[in-house]
Amino acid sequence: MNECQTYPSPFRKHKQGTQPDHLHAGYVSSMKRAPLQPLVTITPTLSELTGPLFGRDEIVAGECNMTRSANGGEAQGQRIAVSGRLLDEGGAPIRNTLLEVWQANAAGRYLHKWDQHDAPLDPNFSGEGHVLTDDLGRYSFVTVQPGSYPWGNHHNAWRPAHIHFSVFGPAVCTRLVTQMYFPGDPLLPFDPIYNCTADSAARERLISRFDWNTTIPQSTLGFVFDIHLRGRYATPMEEGHDDH
After folding, report:
1. Averaged over 117-138, what is the pLDDT?
2. Which of 149, 194, 205, 230 is catalytic?
3. Which one from 14, 24, 79, 110 is the annotated catalytic residue?
4. What digits encode the pLDDT tens for the residues 37-70?
5. C-beta separation of 236 from 203 below 8 A
6. Is the pTM of this model over 0.70?
7. Quick check: is 149 catalytic?
């Protein structure tokens, strides 16, 4: 992982077990790709530190609605509104920051050539979107509840419903990735990706909370997911960290 001085690594000064390990025996494919030697810090180049900058010139301001296709069609599935704040270790907002999101459709299938499991594609759902945080670090988007899906970790392995988040700092080398889960999902205790974060309190920070205030009558269920980049309440991220 490249570390840029302009966007410090969120994995410094963390309690052991609060960030996921590269190598987790229950997550079978990690055995093939996890590094076996200590990570090497690569000094970023000037271009990595200075650009490109992700900001309002590239992204149209406003709420991201993933339930409507370019041709006006409506995606299938339970509509949900996801919102939250991007915060630093002291709880201060991180402004004007790009978040990318991607997910499976309501049937549990990604719009990707590698996903060929027996579930229908939705012609009106691409499964991806992006949004900027505002001056208070807030973001929001509308999507559909993603379905669970089999993923081959063992003969009857299923992933719980989840949404992927990518948080971009001021340059290409400052990108963090995590996953948001849903409360009460019966698959969570059996999911090795969720459980590769050893600290139970840190794992709980990966679960969104149901929110009446953003629930729209007869239309949309609301969920809140705050992302903390550093400190005691940091959100676990799928990246390198200093515990190795």
Report:
1. 95
2. 149
3. 110
4. 877 776 666 555 555 555 555 565 556 999 999 8
5. yes
6. yes
7. yes
